[in-house]
Structure to design on (329 residues):
């Protein structure tokens, strides 16, 4: 029994420090890119950095990468439903002026 | 289960009767926490959606209003939360590897960082209060020219989103106090540490929300020149 009790194996310290520095670099990058006027590109760049940081946190700090398929499905479903909420709301708001 | 003999007095046996084994029980516990966190995604998600709608309607007002936030304080708090996520992960690793000292020190560090975040947030809120940027009758609409009412929407969202986030930090500190007491009594062992593990999930989730809040609220107006209006 003790062999399969621990599906969550202990991650090496290097993984946690690597994720930590990636998050710090991401924070510096997001502040730096925000100071430059990139017109409509500011938003997608800020979002891309934030999503990358979020993935690092979810996959490594929250151990989802090493979790069961069921957990992965739960996590993915949660964020997909959130995207559905934003997308359907925005298709409504952004098309109201077309009438 | 020879491990049961090693458990301190008063600690229940690892596997509850309605689970096949400890593995199934732990997977259920973690999945349950994730189910809760998904409701949190939807909870914060509604606010994020409101933000997206209004930002899309009034992009200029949002940029102008955002430039009145103190990006240095927001940035410092971002770093504080990232470090606290690292110490949280280290605390769990301490439990996994039976390093009691590492676990306890990192739990305390995580709580201190969480408290630091709230102190910084307090000073930020006071600053906004003194500059009449708290939505309400005293809100200084004239500071935003033609965009006064729309800037007030931005600040309503700012206080609602960061306030809700700060509330989660307070709850997190409460749960961490419980975790600390349990950890000190030796309730978390390499065989059974799911309590601290799922507390970690909550803590990292709160960090995750801030990762999005920081650029969305603080950095929109940064190309006016950082700190132009603070």
């Amino acid at each position: 029994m003790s062999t399969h009790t621990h599906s969550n194996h202990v991650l090496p310290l290097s993984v946690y420090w690597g994720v930590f520095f990636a998050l710090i670099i991401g924070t510096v990058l997001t502040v730096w890119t925000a100071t430059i006027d990139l017109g409509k590109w500011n938003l997608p760049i800020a979002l891309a950095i934030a999503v990358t940081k979020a993935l690092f946190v979810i996959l490594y700090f929250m151990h989802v990468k090493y979790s069961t398929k069921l957990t992965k499905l739960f996590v993915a479903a949660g964020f997909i439903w959130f995207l559905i909420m934003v997308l359907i709301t925005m298709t409504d708001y952004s098309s109201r002026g077309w009438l | 289960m020879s491990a049961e003999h090693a458990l301190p007095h008063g600690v229940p046996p690892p596997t509850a009767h309605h689970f096949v084994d400890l593995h199934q029980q732990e997977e259920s516990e973690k999945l349950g926490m994730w189910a809760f966190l998904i409701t949190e995604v939807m909870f914060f998600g509604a606010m994020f959606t409101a933000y997206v709608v209004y930002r899309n309607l009034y992009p200029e007002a949002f940029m102008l209003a955002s430039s009145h936030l103190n990006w240095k304080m927001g940035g410092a708090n971002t770093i504080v939360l990232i470090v606290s996520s690292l110490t949280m992960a280290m605390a769990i690793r301490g439990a996994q590897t039976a390093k009691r000292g590492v676990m306890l020190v990192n739990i305390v560090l995580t709580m201190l960082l969480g408290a630091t975040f709230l102190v910084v947030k307090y000073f930020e809120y006071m600053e906004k209060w003194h500059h009449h940027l708290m939505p309400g009758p005293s809100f200084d609409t004239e500071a935003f020219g033609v965009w006064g009412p729309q800037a007030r929407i931005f600040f309503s969202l700012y206080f609602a989103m960061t306030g809700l986030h700060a509330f989660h930090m307070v709850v997190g500190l409460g749960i961490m106090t419980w975790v600390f007491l349990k950890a000190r009594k030796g309730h978390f062992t390499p065989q059974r540490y799911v309590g601290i593990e799922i507390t970690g999930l909550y803590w990292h989730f709160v960090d995750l929300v801030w990762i999005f809040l920081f650029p969305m609220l603080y950095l929109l107006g940064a190309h006016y020149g950082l700190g132009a209006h603070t």
